[in-house]
TrEMBL record:
This is TonB-dependent receptor. It comes from the Bacteria. Keywords: Receptor. It comes from Dyella choica.
């Protein structure tokens, strides 16, 4: 399991983690806060990561966490 954290472009901070679900997929979970107050939690999955470096997986997870919060369906 790996831990990630950051700040979304709309000002929310997040703390999350992800783990490998199989050889080319990771699943993640993140908690979002604004000024220390809990605002929500999301989870997701990223496929087709076979052969991708650890740094690139971290970046993909961070991008997906941001996108899930700032561009909800």
């Amino acid at each position: 399991m790996a831990i990630v954290s950051g700040k979304t472009k709309n000002g929310f901070t997040y703390e999350g983690d992800y783990q490998c679900a199989n050889s080319d997929r990771v699943t993640w979970t993140a908690t979002y806060r604004l000024r220390g107050h809990f605002y929500g939690m999301r989870h997701g999955r990223i496929d087709q990561l076979k052969g991708v470096s650890v740094k690139d997986v971290d970046d993909a997870v961070r991008d997906d966490i941001e996108s899930t919060w700032t561009h909800p369906i």
